Amino acid sequence: MGRSKGLQPLIEGRATADGTRRFRKRFENGQTDHFYRPLADGLVVSSLGLGTYLGECDDAEDGRYTATVIAAVEKGVNLLDTAINYRCQRSERAIREAVRTLMSRGAIKREEIVVCTKGGYIPLERTPPATKEGYRGFLDSEYYGPGVMQPEDVVSGGHCLTPRYLNDQIERSRRNLGLAFIDLYYLHNPEQQLDVLTRSKFLSAIGAAFSALEQQIERGIIGFYGCSTWNGFRVPPEARNHLSLEELVTIAREVGGESHHFRIAQLPINLAMTEAVRVPTQCVGSERVSVLEAAHRFGVGIVGSATLMQSQLTRSLPEQLRSAFPGFNSDARRAIAFAQSLPLTAALVGMKSVAHLEQNLERAELS
C-alpha cells in the first residue's frame, strides 16, 4: 500500500463498473429516473456531481466541505470533483477526510465513488502568500529549486502543463486525496497556454501532456483523462483560445492509439451559458457543430460545470422557467433540472452546506 508522507497510508482501489452499479442500485429508488448515467469504461455516476471550487482557505470551510461530501455520498452522489489549486489544496484534503470517514463507517467502498481532480494551475499551500515576493519564494523553493519546472515553463504567472510538472501534481493530488488511484484527471484550462504559445506549439504541448497521462494510466495511477475548461470549448474556432475537440481526439489517438484514454470534456453549461447547446463552436471535418454534438461523434463524455453560475442562478429566475420546470420549490433546483435535461454525463454544483445539498437533490412534486 502506498504511503503519503506524514499521513495515513493511501487508500488502494479505484472506481469500477461493478462498484458504481452497486452504488446506483442502493440509491436509485430515492432518485429521479436517469439520475445515474454512464461516464466511461462502464462507470456509472450521479448526474449531480459535487464541486469544491469556491470558499475561504480556512479550517472552518474545510469542515463544511467535508461534512457536505459525507452527506452527499450518503444521499446517492458518487461523483466528486476538485482540483489541486482549489482553496490552496484544501478542497482535495477535505475530500480525503470525507472518504476516510465514509469508509471507516462502512458507508461506501472505494470502488463505488468516482474522484476527479485537475492539474495546470500552480497550487498554493493552505493560504496565499502575503506578497509577490512571498509567491516567488514559494515557486523557488517548491518548484524551481527541485527542478519540477523552470520559469520559462510558466504561463500567465501560474499555469504549467509540462510532463514533469503534471507528474509532480498527480503525486501531490494522490497525497492530498489520500488515494492511491485517481479515477479521472483533467488538464485544467489548457487554453491558458494559448495566451503565449502559437497554435502549433500548443498542440505539441498537449501531445506531451497527453503522453504523460497515458503513461500514468499504464502505471496504474489514473483511470482516464480529459480537459476541464472555462472558455476553450465555448468560443468559436477563430478565437485565439479556442479548443478543438477534433484536434484533441486526434492528438490522443496519436499518443495512445485507438484505445486512448481521453474520454471527458468539462465546460460551463447553465441557463445563462448555453453555448455548448446552441453555438456551433466545433469543426468536425468541414461541418460546424455544437460541443455536445462533436462530443457525441467522438465518443467523449461531457460534464457541465458552473451549473448555478456561482449561485447567480439560485434566485429571481423568470416565471417562464418556473413553468418549464414545474414541481420544484427553488430556482436552484430548476437550474439544475435544466442542466440534467441535456445529454450530459453530469452537472457539477459547488456545495459546502448540507441544507443546500438537500435542496439541490429535491425531487419534483408533480400532481
Sequence-ordered SSE layout with sheet pairings:
Layout: H1 17-27, E1 36-38, E2 44-46, E3 48-51, H2 59-74, E4 79-81, H3 90-104, E5 114-119, H4 132-144, H5 163-177, E6 182-188, H6 199-218, E7 222-228, H7 245-256, E8 262-268, H8 275-278, E9 282-284, E10 287-289, H9 291-298, E11 301-305, H10 319-324, H11 331-340, E12 346-350, H12 354-360
Parallel strand pairs: 3-12, 4-5, 5-6, 6-7, 7-8, 8-11, 11-12
Antiparallel strand pairs: 1-2, 9-10
Helix pairs in contact: 2-3, 5-6, 6-7
Account of the 3D structure:
With 367 residues, this protein is α/β, with parallel strands linked by helices. It has a single domain (23-360), classed as NADP-dependent oxidoreductase domain (TIM Barrel), CATH 3.20.20. Helices cover 37% and strands 15% of the residues. The chain has twelve helices and twelve strands. The protein has helices spanning 17-27, 59-74, 90-104, 132-144, 163-177, 199-218, 245-256, 275-278, 291-298, 319-324, 331-340, 354-360, and strands at 36-38, 44-46, 48-51, 79-81, 114-119, 182-188, 222-228, 262-268, 282-284, 287-289, 301-305, 346-350. Strands 3-12-11-8-7-6-5-4 form an eight-stranded parallel sheet, covered by helices on one side. A two-stranded antiparallel ribbon has the order 1-2. Strands 9-10 form a two-stranded antiparallel sheet. A hairpin with a 5-residue loop joins strand 1 (36-38) and strand 2 (44-46).
CATH class annotation: Alpha Beta
Strand content: 15-25%
Assigned CATH architecture: Alpha-Beta Barrel
Low-confidence blocks of residues: 1-5
At a glance:
Helix content is 37%, strand content 15%.
